[in-house]
Each structure stands twice: as structure tokens, then as C-alpha cells.
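Q: Predict the bound structure with zinc ion.
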Amino acid sequence: VNTKDARASLPLLLEPEFVVDEEGRVADGPVRVEGGRIAAIGPAARRAGAAVVPLTGRALSPAFVNAHSHAFQLGLRGHVEKKDAAHAHDDFWTWRTHMYALANALTPSEMRAVARAAFLDMVRAGFTHVGEFHYVHHAHDDERARPATRDDHAMCDAVVEAAADAGIHLTLLETGYARAAPGKPALAGQRRFVFDRVDAFLAHVDDVARAHPHVTTGFAIHSVRACPLDWIAAISARAAELRAPLHVHASEQTGELEIAMAEHGRSPIAILDDAGALTAKSTVVHATHASDDDVARLAARGAVVCLCPTTERNLGDGLVPARALVDAGVPLAIGSDSQTRIDPLLELAAIEEDERLRVRARSVLVEPGQTLAMRLWPIGTANGARALSSDGGRMAVGAPADLVALSIPSSFAPSGDSSGDALHDDDRAHALDALLVSGTREAVRDVFVGGDHVVRDGRFFTIDEAAVAADARRALAAARKRAAR
Ligand SMILES: [Zn+2]
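A: Predicted complex:
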């Protein structure tokens, strides 16, 4: 008996303790799901003809959106924390050599196995949509850089298949990469990332989009370091023509700022703005070292800034000017980036907590009368959906039923008996803030993707998580062996 199909055809009535929307506001449940979408919210949704799913002691929220990921970097986790005797100073640039070794070793089938494990772990953590910033293009493992051929998209196919295997929504951000630095051709370690000409890259993206019509395809400019001005302008123009999302790493490292200053006399964000790369469809990833002028440019163009605080901590990037971005009205999103941690609640809390450390104050991003959840919840949901051109990330009738049920911290949990001690709105709001300051991905107990109840009480219902992890482990062992040769 295929219970999954039988259930999918029947409307669901999700009965949580309470509902939270993408603005971090609390309300009464239940939520009715029909045809993979939210059909009704609140007491009026309680009609007959639905399978009731009790979510006692849990808050039901739009699922989280992971706006910036490099899935294969899951394979670096735990392998890059030791100091190399030849490099007494370990930093982003030494980390990068380890990352290149793995990127160059992976075959398409290994890429699929690692990405599948990363994507599955994201779903388990409450992310149901990922923006994969994909730059490991060419399947060849030649010693020489070789020109891209039009049909060379086995690595992109691997990522698309991995997302389908894991049941996560994917926005595939095909990434342009031209050079090591201004006037410097790609290094050996970068040979899989580069295309000879920008039109060869754009033709490649066309082919990938045609091969995967059901996947949202967007564009990425790897960075101002890796792309000259004519590439930045051409990729931006193509993204605008197709109304596709455009993502770019910018101002993550001070070394990158120095390179941009030397080549253009301006910051990476100013260069992107002047080249037409910043629009309301753009997402700037990191913006760690954004100046006041950079922040004003981002705000004027309506671009999203995607923060990846747990990765930025791991790589020693620096502290982002979060207060300045928020004050200017720049929408923020989150990404798991290097996969050091895959945990939406930790990323969200870190945005406020890192800013507290930076400015030595409390409740820095929160306005009077606002809860912490009201500040951070849009960052984890609606803003990420916007960055990925998704219509998800919302608790609204008609929105996709991509939902998570979060366990309410025990100090707020109602007794569960019939004493009538239901949570009032104030308690509910405080419970969400408690989740943010004390919770982790372990609070995510249920995940619904397009109305499918894929994670139940913290376990996948139809997917063998252990088998997926074992496949990834085998693939990574093979790739590391090849990299060491
Ligand atoms: Zn990145």
C-alpha cells in the first residue's frame, strides 16, 4: 500500500498549538492543506473531509528558505579545522585550497551523492527551498583547463537530480567565473569553474534551463574578483532580460576589497551597482565589509543581502554591519553556505547576537514594540523566497504548503491536560523568542513539502537517511583518494 499517495489525495488538517506567519506574528490554527497548497487558516479551516494531523505542543510556520548553498562543501566539514604546518596562519585563503581540491576531484555521480545528503539534511533542519550557487561545472578531470562544450552539464544535472532525490525545491544559480584575479587567468584549482567567454557561459545556462524546465534557473556572478566588467554587465543583462534571480558574492573578505580597489578604485558593491548588477531581483551574499555608501546603494536598488553567519564565523570573514543594513531597509536572507552548520534557527539568532557583540548592546535589531521573532522570521522565510524567485515562504491561503512544526520550548509548553491553560498571544510571542535564543534544528519536528508530510516527529517517513549518508561518505572517500594522488 502506498500510504504516501493515499494521504496526498486527501486534504490535511494540521492542528498545531498555534500558527506563526512569515512576519513572525502568531495566530490560531488549524491549517487546512489541499492539493499541496494552504487552503484555509484559523478555526474556519476546521471542516470535515480531511485527515487530521495533530501537532500538539508545536508551532506551525512557513518552512525556512536557504538562499545560499554550495552543497558539495558538506564534504569539507571536519576536514578543514586543523592547522597546516606550511601555513602557520590559517584563513579563508588557506581554506580555499582545501575546497578546490575537493571541487576538482568530484565526479558527477559523487556530486549527486554529496549534494543529496546535504539537501536531505537541509529538509530535516526545516529548509524546503535551496538556492544552489553552483560553480563546479565541468565533469572533466583534465590537467589543462579546457573549453566548455555546449552539452557539458553533467555536474548541473547531478545537482538537479540530488534536489529531486531529497525532495527540496531548487533554484539553480548557474555561476559565471572567468579568472583568478584581474589580469590573471584561472589557476589549476579553478579550471572546473571557468568558461572561455561569457557567451559560452550564457549558452551553457540556456542549455541547462532547457534540460530542466521544472527547475527555477537563475544566474550568479561568482565575485568581482573572478569576473571582469564585461562579464558582470553581460550576465546582469541576461538575468534582467529573463527576469531571473541574480546572485553574487561581494565584500566577504578584506583581500577581495583590496583587489577591487586596485582594479577599479571602487568597492565590489559599487562596481556591481555601476555595472547594472544590482536590482530588486539581485542578492548580494555576505556584504560583510559593506561601507555606508555600499549600504545606501543596496537600499536604493532594492537588492537582498544574504547573510551566512555560521559560515562567516567559521571562515573568519568578519562581522556584517547588520544594524546599518536593517536601518536602510535592505531585506536580509540567510544561507547555510559552506554547510559547516545547517540550522536556520542558529543562523537567524546569530544575526542579532553577532551584532550585539559588535556594538556591545542588547536588542540591537529589534524596534520598540516588536519581538525578536518579528525581526528575524521574515529573514528566514519570505525574504529568502524573494531572493530565489519562489512563491513560498508565506503562511497564506494559496501559498505552497511548505511548512515546519517547531517544538515549543518546555518552559512555554502547555500542560496538555484539559485545565484550559492554552497559550495566550503574549505567551506565544515569547515562546517564539525563546526558540530563537535557545533553540536549534532539533526543535524542527515535522516538515511538509508541497503538502507532503516528509519529516514526522524528527524522522523521514519515506527516505532512508542512513543510506543517503552512507552513499555520500563512500563518494567523498573516493573523491579524497583521487584528490590525494
Ligand atoms: Zn558562498
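A: The CA atoms of residues 273 and 297 lie 7 Å apart.
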